[in-house]
Design a protein that fits this description.
Shape of chain B: elongated
Order of helices and strands of chain A: HHHHHHHHHHHHHHHH
Order of helices and strands of chain B: HEHEHHHEHEHHHHHHHH
Shape of chain A: globular
Helix content of chain B: 40-55%
Strand content of chain A: under 5%
Number of helices of chain B: 14
Number of strands of chain A: 0
Radius of gyration of chain A: 24 Å
CATH architecture of chain A: Up-down Bundle
Largest sheet of chain B: 4 strands, antiparallel
Distance between the termini of chain B: 109 Å
Strand order of the largest sheet of chain B: 2-3-1-4
Strand content of chain B: 5-15%
CATH topology of chain A: Formate dehydrogenase/DMSO reductase fold
Largest sheet of chain A: none
CATH superfamily of chain A: Formate dehydrogenase/DMSO reductase domain
Number of domains of chain A: 1
Helix content of chain A: 55-70%
Distance between the termini of chain A: 22 Å
Number of domains of chain B: 2
Oligomer: heterodimer
Number of strands of chain B: 4
Number of helices of chain A: 16
C-alpha cells in the first residue's frame, strides 16, 4: 500500500469533516461525480452560450481584428507608426510585453506551485488560469515579435547561422529572453494540454455530433482512464509542475535582466528579478480574479469556483502587493544609499519628473488598492474584489511604463531629453491585445473543459477508498 | 444510453477475436476490493479504468513505480549538455564572436540558456515519455466498443481482464468478476484494436502532413546552398530602395546634374584651414624632398609626448612592425608564409630609415607608403608627430654604442 498517497487522501477527508477549523468544502452543495461532469460539460454542450458571451464576443472580436490590422500596417510601414523616438526607443511594445508576461505567471503559479504545495483548492481554478497563461503569452510574444519591425527577419533569433554564417550572440539578455519566453510558452502549453486530456476524453464520450466526436477524440489521444495510465500521468503531472515552478521564476527574472543587465541608472539594480516576479504574481492573480468572477456567474460554476477560492486569491494579492510596495520603497532607499548622483536623479525624476502622474497612479493602484483586502467584507464581495483587481491591473501596466519610459526620457545629455507621446497605433495595438486575449478566453470557455473535471472529482470525499482489512490506517477515515 | 449497454454482443462481433471481459462498478471501494481479489487470483494482464486517479490502487493492483522520472532525468541532462555545447561551439569556436571584450565562452552568462534548455528538454521528456509509456495516442481500443465504457470518463469504474492472460478462461474469469461488487453483468469484449475502425483520411492525413511540413524546410536548405541569377526577393523594398540620392549619381535638381556638390569657390570648411605647412605636411618647401628635419615648433617635445607616441605606436603600428620595430608584429608573423602575396614590413632600424628626416617619416604615416596604407583617419596630426618622436627614440635605443653608456647602465644591460 502506498501510504503517502493514502495520507494525502485522508487529509482532505479530515479537512472537510473533522478539522476543528472547519474549512469550507471545495465543492459546494450536494454533488456527486455525475452531476459534476454534467454541470461542467454543460458549458460546452448547451446549444447556445449565454447572451453575455455574445456581448463579450461582439466587443473582443472587433478589437482582435483591429490588432491584426495594426500589425499588418506596421509590417508595411515600419515601427515609425508608433511613438517610439529617441531617447525613448523602448516604449509601449516592451511595456505591453512585460505586462502580458506578468499576467501569464499567475496561471503557472496556480497550476504548478500550488500543486506542489498540495493546495487542493487550486483544482477548480487551475484550468482557466492555465488557459489564461497561454493566451497572455500569445499576447506577450506578439509585442517583441512585431517590435523588430521587419518580421521576416525574426529567424535571426533562432539558433541557426544566418546568411553571414554568424550565430546569435548568446551573452545577451535579449537572447536569454527569447529562450526563456519560448520555453515558457512551450512548457505551459504542454502542461495545459496534458491536464486537459482526460477531460477531453469526457467530452469525446459525451459528444453528440460526429464532428465533435472526431475533434475531441483526436485531442483526447484515445485516453481510457486505465490505472496504469493514470499512474504515469500523475507522475508526469508532478514532474511538469516541478519543472514549471523554477521555470516561472526564471522567466520573469530573465525578463528583468533585459533591464537590469544594461548599465542605466534606474534599471541596473539587483532587486529587479525578485521584484519583477512578485509583481508578475500580483498582476496575474488580479487578472484571474477579474476573469473568474464574471465567468463563474455566467457559466453557472459558483459551486465549483467558490468564494473560498476567490478569497484565497485575494490573500495572495495583498501579500504580493505589499512585496511590490516594499520593492518601490527599497529602490528609493538604495538610490539614496548608493551615493550615486545619477541613480538619485533617476528616482527623483521618476517620482517628481515629467512622468510624476504615471508614478503616482502606479503607487496608488499597486500599493494602496490591495490593502483593502485586509477587510474580509471587501475580499469576499465579488463586485468589490473585481474593482480592486482592475485597479491592480491598471497599476501594474503603469509600473512597466514607469520603469521603461521614465528611465529613458532623461538620459545623460540634457539636450537629448524627450517626452513620450503614444500614437493612435500604440493605443489601438494595446487595446487589440486585450481583444485577442478575451477572444481566446471566450472561445476556450465555450469549447474546452473550463474546469479540470477529473481533478475536481478527485478532491471530493467519495473519491477516496475507505480502508478495509489489510489497509487499516486508523480512525478518522470512516467519517462518512 | 446505459440501458442498452449490456445487451449481448451482436453476431458479427463474435467472429472478431475476443479481447477479454469487463466488469463495471459504482464506487471506488468496490473497485479497489475487486482489484485486490483479481490480484490475489494471480492474473497479470488486466487493468482498472477510472474517471480520476485513485490513490493507492497501485498497491491493490500490484504494480510498482513508473520509470518515467529516470527518463526525464536523462532528457534534462541532455538539454544541459546541448545548451553548453551550443553556446560554446557557436560563439567561441565556429564563429568567435567578441562582444565588449567579454570572454568568448564563460559559465555565468551561459546559465540562463542552460537552465531553459534543461527545463525544455525535461518537459518534452515528461510529456512524450508519459505518452510513450502509456502507448498513446491510440485512437481506438477494443474497450471503446463496449457502450457502457463511455461512462469511464464520467462516473463509473471498470475492471478489464485480457484474454491473453495465462489464467484467463471465459467462464471462470467471468465468474470471478461476478463475485465482486459489480453493478452490471460482466460481459465479454471483442475487437482487434486499431484495424479498420479509424477512417482512412485520418491515417492519410497523419502520414501526408509531416511530409508537407518538411517541404518549406527543404526549400530553405536548398536555397541556402545554391546560387541564383535572380535578384533577392524584397518583401518591403523601402529599406533597400530609400528615397535618397546615392553617391556619384545624376541629380536633375542642379544645373550641372551632379549629385556631389563642389566646394564653393574661395571657402574653407570649418577646421580645415591648415596654414602651418611644417606641422601638417612635414615639409618646409614646395620641392619633392624638402622634408623637415626638425619637429614643428608648436609641439612640446617632453617625456609625456614620447610616452603618448609609444602608446599610439603599440596600438596602431606594432601589429605589423612589432613593438621593437623590427617588423615581427603578430599580423606579419601570421601572414608570412600563409599568404604568398604578403610583403613583410621593413625594419624601422634599416640604414636608410635611421637617416630619414622626421618630416618624411611623418608623411609616410600620414599618406602611406608602398603597401602600407595611410593612417590619417586613425591618428590626429599631433599623435602622428608623437609616433615619429617615439620611432626616433626607438631607433636610438636599438643602435646605441656600448661605450657611450655610463658604467651603471652598462652593468644593467649585461
Amino acid at each position: 500500500m502506498t501510504s503517502s498517497a493514502m495520507g494525502n487522501a485522508s487529509a482532505i477527508v479530515i479537512d472537510q469533516d473533522i478539522d476543528p477549523r472547519r474549512r469550507k468544502s471545495l465543492v459546494e452543495g450536494d454533488h456527486d461525480f455525475t452531476s459534476i461532469t454534467a454541470s461542467i460539460a454543460n458549458v460546452a454542450e448547451r446549444p447556445k452560450p449565454p447572451k453575455a458571451w455574445y456581448v463579450a464576443m461582439a466587443i473582443s472580436l472587433p478589437l482582435t481584428l483591429t490588432l491584426f490590422g495594426c500589425i499588418a500596417y506596421l509590417v508595411v510601414k515600419g515601427v515609425g507608426i508608433w511613438g517610439n523616438r529617441q531617447p525613448i526607443s523602448w516604449a509601449w511594445p516592451i511595456v505591453n510585453f512585460v505586462f502580458w508576461v506578468g499576467i501569464a505567471h499567475a496561471g503557472t503559479l496556480i497550476s504548478a506551485i500550488l500543486f506542489l504545495f498540495r493546495q487542493k483548492w487550486r483544482t477548480s481554478i487551475n484550468r482557466a488560469a492555465e488557459a489564461m497563461t497561454i493566451f497572455a503569452v500569445v499576447c506577450a510574444g506578439t509585442f517583441p515579435a512585431i517590435h523588430v519591425g521587419r518580421i521576416w527577419m525574426e529567424w535571426f533569433l533562432a539558433p541557426v547561422p544566418n546568411h553571414l554564417e554568424m550565430w546569435p550572440q548568446f551573452r545577451s539578455p535579449l537572447l536569454w529572453d527569447v529562450f526563456a519566453v519560448s520555453t515558457y510558452a512551450t512548457v505551459s502549453l504542454l502542461f495545459w494540454y496534458m491536464g486537459m486530456v482526460p477531460d477531453l476524453a469526457t467530452f469525446r464520450d459525451r459528444a453528440t455530433t460526429k464532428i465533435k466526436k472526431i475533434a475531441y477524440g483526436i485531442f483526447a489521444l484515445g485516453w481510457r482512464g486505465s490505472s496504469r495510465q493514470w499512474h504515469r500521468y500523475e507522475r508526469a503531472y508532478l514532474l511538469l509542475a516541478a519543472l514549471a515552478m523554477p521555470l516561472v521564476l526564471s522567466v520573469h527574472s530573465v525578463v528583468s535582466f533585459d533591464f537590469a543587465v544594461s548599465i542605466l541608472p534606474g534599471w541596473h539594480t539587483t532587486i529587479f528579478p525578485p521584484y519583477f516576479v512578485a509583481g508578475a504574481i500580483f498582476s496575474g492573480f488580479a487578472m484571474v480574479v477579474t476573469l473568474m468572477v464574471p465567468a463563474r456567474a455566467l457559466f453557472g460554476l459558483k459551486h465549483v469556483v467558490t468564494l473560498r477560492h476567490l478569497e484565497n486569491m485575494n490573500k495572495v494579492i495583498v501579500a504580493t502587493g505589499t512585496m511590490v510596495g516594499y520593492a518601490y520603497a527599497m529602490e528609493f532607499f538604495i538610490a539614496w544609499y548608493s551615493g550615486s548622483q545619477y541613480e538619485q536623479f533617476a528616482f527623483i525624476n521618476r517620482a517628481l519628473g515629467p512622468y510624476w502622474w504615471a508614478y503616482w497612479i502606479m503607487v496608488s493602484c499597486n500599493v494602496i488598492a490591495p490593502q483593502f483586502f485586509w477587510f474580509k467584507k471587501i475580499r469576499t464581495s465579488p463586485l468589490l474584489m473585481v474593482i480592486v483587481c482592475i485597479f491592480v491591473n491598471i497599476g501594474m501596466w503603469f509600473e512597466r511604463f514607469v520603469i521603461t519610459v521614465s528611465t529613458l526620457n532623461r538620459d545623460f545629455l540634457p539636450s537629448a531629453w524627450g517626452y513620450f507621446s503614444p500614437t493612435l497605433f500604440d493605443i489601438l495595438t494595446l487595446c487589440g491585445s486585450f481583444g485577442l486575449f478575451m477572444t481566446l478566453f471566450l472561445l476556450f470557455c465555450r469549447y474546452l473543459p473550463m474546469v479540470a473535471i477529473s481533478e475536481v472529482k478527485s478532491v471530493m470525499p467519495q473519491a477516496h477508498p475507505h480502508h478495509h482489512g489489510d489497509d487499516a490506517h486508523g480512525a478518522g477515515h470512516h467519517a462518512h | 444510453m446505459n440501458a442498452k449497454a449490456h445487451s449481448p454482443a451482436a453476431p458479427a462481433e463474435r467472429t472478431r477475436p475476443l479481447y477479454g471481459v469487463i466488469a463495471e462498478y459504482k464506487d471506488v471501494d468496490s473497485l479497489v476490493a475487486a482489484a485486490r481479489k483479481v490480484r490475489d487470483a494471480g492474473y497479470t494482464r488486466w487493468d482498472t479504468h477510472t474517471p480520476f486517479p485513485i490513490h493507492g490502487i497501485e498497491g491493490a493492483m500490484g504494480f510498482g513505480m513508473t520509470r518515467l522520472p529516470w527518463f526525464v532525468l536523462c532528457c534534462g541532462l541532455t538539454g544541459l549538455t546541448v545548451a553548453v555545447l551550443l553556446q560554446w561551439w557557436t560563439n567561441a569556436v565556429d564563429y568567435p564572436f567578441l562582444i565588449s571584450g567579454k570572454p568568448l565562452f564563460a559559465l555565468p552568462p551561459a546559465i540562463p540558456i542552460c537552465f531553459e534548455l534543461t527545463v525544455l528538454f525535461s518537459a518534452f521528456g515528461t510529456f512524450f515519455g508519459m505518452l510513450g509509456l502509456n502507448k498513446l495516442p491510440m485512437l481506438h481500443h477494443p474497450l471503446f466498443e463496449h457502450e457502457a465504457f463511455k461512462r469511464v470518463t464520467d462516473d463509473r469504474f471498470f475492471l478489464a481482464i485480457e484474454s491473453q492472460d495465462p489464467k484467463f478462461g471465459l467462464e471462470s474469469t467471468k465468474a470471478l468478476l461476478a463475485s465482486t461488487g459489480v453493478c452490471a453483468d460482466v460481459v465479454a469484449v471483442h475487437g482487434n484494436g486499431d484495424k479498420g475502425v479509424l477512417p482512412n483520411w485520418m491515417k492519410n492525413f497523419a502520414i501526408v502532413m509531416p511530409i508537407l511540413l518538411l517541404v518549406p524546410l527543404a526549400w530553405i536548405v536548398t536555397a541556402r546552398h545554391s546560387t541564383s541569377p535572380k535578384t533577392r526577393l524584397q518583401v518591403i523594398p523601402d529599406m533597400d530602395q530609400q528615397l535618397k540620392f546615392r553617391n556619384q549619381t545624376r541629380n536633375v535638381f542642379f544645373a550641372d546634374q551632379r549629385n556631389e556638390r563642389p566646394r564653393v569657390e574661395g571657402t574653407i570648411p570649418r577646421g580645415l584651414l591648415r596654414e602651418d605647412q611644417h606641422y601638417y605636411t612635414g615639409k618646409t618647401g614646395p620641392g619633392e624632398s624638402d622634408w623637415a628635419t626638425k619637429f614643428p615648433a608648436a609641439l612640446s617635445l617632453d617625456e609625456a609626448f614620447v610616452a603618448r607616441g609609444r602608446e599610439r605606436f603599440n596600438i596602431t603600428c606594432a601589429a605589423c612592425h612589432g613593438q621593437t620595430g623590427v617588423g615581427d608584429g603578430l599580423v606579419s608573423q601570421r601572414a608570412t608564409g600563409k599568404y604568398p602575396s604578403w610583403i613583410p614590413p621593413i625594419s624601422l632600424h634599416a640604414e636608410n630609415l635611421l637617416a630619414q628626416p622626421v618630416g618624411q617619416t611623418f608623411s609616410s604615416i600620414r599618406n602611406g607608403i608602398r603597401t602600407m596604407p595611410s593612417y590619417a583617419q586613425q591618428l590626429t596630426v599631433e599623435d602622428t608627430w608623437a609616433i615619429v618622436a617615439y620611432v626616433k627614440a626607438l631607433q636610438k635605443s636599438q643602435a646605441f654604442p656600448v661605450e657611450k653608456l655610463s658604467p651603471e647602465e652598462r652593468q644593467k644591460v649585461q
